[in-house]
Amino acid sequence: MRILLVEDDALLGDGVRAGLKQAGFAVDWSQDGQVAKLALETEEYAVVVLDLGLPKLSGTDLLKWLRATLSKVPVLVLTARDTVADRVSGLNAGADDYLIKPFDLDELIARINALLRRSAGQVTQNLQHGNIILTPATHQVTQHGKSVDLSAREFTLLHELLLHAGRVQSREQLEQHLYGWGEEVESNSIEVHIHHLRKKLGSDLIRTLRGVGYVIDQDASEK
Ligand code: CA
């Protein structure tokens, strides 16, 4: 799941990016409104975390522009002051939720997950494949009803493959969901995560199509 973080405060931005990364999100971090606008024009995001006071283009103006494009991407606004006027202007501009600085990282992640649940569609649905059930809302995977311990990246990878069951995902497509801008991608990292998933969930779950990508075949019971 890819998140756009727009925050000009270097210390705060760095901390939030690290926290979201650890929670399994791919994070693109931009430090001004113009760069964020460009990112929104070219990439697809699951959620935008937006500071209002930004150089070049304010968060409020960026949000107004975004909503004018009819984009429905959930936006969580970070505001420095808790004044009713700020809150109202943010919500009027099209924010879905807001958080007052300073905030707790766990709370930010909980709010993001709530937004993901609300933003309709597949994101909210449990995904089942044979005896495996993946619950996006709680980041849980069970097999035969027993909880399976996956790393954040293994979870994201499994989620993507299940969402696109029956369709081959290339390594580049999968990397898009695991890594943000400027993050070092080791050339074999997808292979390593796939290897771990097979060890934990069974060797025949994920098929490799050499030179093409990976696929989880459609659940036989759903055909
Ligand atoms: Ca700011």
The number of distinct β-strands equals 11
Residues in helix, %: 40-55%
H/E element order: EHEHEHEHEHEEEEHHHEE
- Overall pLDDT confidence: 89
Sheet with the most strands: spatial strand order: 2-1-3-4-5
Number of domains: 2
Rounded radius of gyration (Å):
19 Å
The CATH architecture of the largest domain is 3-Layer(aba) Sandwich
Question: In words, what does this structure look like?
Answer:
Strands 2-1-3-4-5 form a five-stranded parallel β-sheet, with helices on both faces. The chain has eight helices and eleven strands. By secondary structure, the chain is α/β, with parallel strands linked by helices. It has two domains: 2-119, Response regulator (Rossmann fold); 127-222, Arc Repressor Mutant, subunit A (Orthogonal Bundle), CATH 1.10.10.10. The structure holds calcium ion. Calcium ion is lined by residues 8-9, 51, 53-54.
Gist of the model:
The chain is of the alpha/beta class and 223 residues long. It has helices spanning 10-22, 33-42, 59-68, 84-93, 105-118, 152-163, 171-178, 189-201, and strands at residues 2-6, 26-30, 47-51, 75-79, 97-100, 127-129, 132-135, 140-143, 146-148, 206-209, 213-216.
Topology:
Elements: E1 2-6, H1 10-22, E2 26-30, H2 33-42, E3 47-51, H3 59-68, E4 75-79, H4 84-93, E5 97-100, H5 105-118, E6 127-129, E7 132-135, E8 140-143, E9 146-148, H6 152-163, H7 171-178, H8 189-201, E10 206-209, E11 213-216
Parallel strand pairs: 1-2, 1-3, 3-4, 4-5
Antiparallel strand pairs: 6-7, 7-8, 8-9, 10-11
Calcium ion is lined by residues 8-9, 51, 53-54.
